[in-house]
Design a protein that fits this description.
This protein is of the alpha+beta class. It has one domain. The chain contains five helices and eight strands; from the N terminus they run ααααββββββββα. The strands form two sheets. Strands 7-4-3-2-1-8 form a six-stranded antiparallel β-sheet, sandwiched between helices. A two-stranded antiparallel ribbon has the order 5-6. The two termini are about 20 Å apart.
């Protein structure tokens, strides 16, 4: 039952964030956009800063430039998750339009309290080693071989009950960058 609840939460979260990204390129009113972005706060514990921003744009940008940007936006996609009695971890691809968009690049850890689920920590796949844990033949100096770079909130404890929880595959990435990290998750890694 917990896995079903976590998957439903994750899919709702991904859908909400993808809608926000669509609004980033279609909403003309900057104040309305800020309110839409703050709406994602319902998925996060306090203290997590939502990293979606857009500067003010002239009206001409929406007619001339926004349609092209909107076509290039890659949606956040749930790749897999682990669920235990009181905690969960989601593995997703990036949303947005940067060079790593679409790759397996986020680990979002969360807490379960009764019927409430909330994201409490964010890690990004290490930008130096690409989530493989080593670079140039030795342990990665940036992530110390952990494959993830903690960015905000609580860090996932390697000894947590999640280390014993099965990895539920939702969508296998197809890009070369994501495959080693995804294989690590499938073999039991966090």
């Amino acid at each position: 039952m917990t896995a079903v609840k976590v998957r439903r939460f994750a899919e709702t979260f991904c859908d909400a964030e993808n809608e926000v990204w669509r609004k980033v390129f279609t909403e003309r009113d900057h104040r309305a956009l800020r309110k839409i972005i703050r709406g994602l706060g319902r998925f996060y514990a306090g203290g997590i800063d939502i990293q979606i921003k857009r500067g003010r744009k002239p009206d001409s940008w929406f007619e001339e430039d926004a349609p092209g940007f909107l076509e290039r936006v890659v949606k956040r996609e749930l790749r897999g998750f682990r669920a235990a009695e009181n905690e969960f971890v989601l593995y997703t691809s990036s949303a947005g339009r940067n060079g790593r968009a679409g790759t397996l690049s986020w680990r979002l850890s969360g807490r379960i309290t009764g019927e409430s689920l909330v994201i409490v920590g964010l890690c990004r796949a290490c930008p130096t080693c690409g989530g493989v844990g080593h670079a140039a033949g030795s342990t990665c100096g940036e992530c110390s071989g952990d494959r993830w770079k903690h960015t905000q909130g609580l860090q996932l404890d390697a000894e947590s009950e999640l280390s014993q929880a099965p990895f539920e595959v939702v969508s296998v990435p197809t890009d070369e960058v994501s495959l080693p990290l995804f294989a690590h998750l499938e073999s039991g890694g966090l």
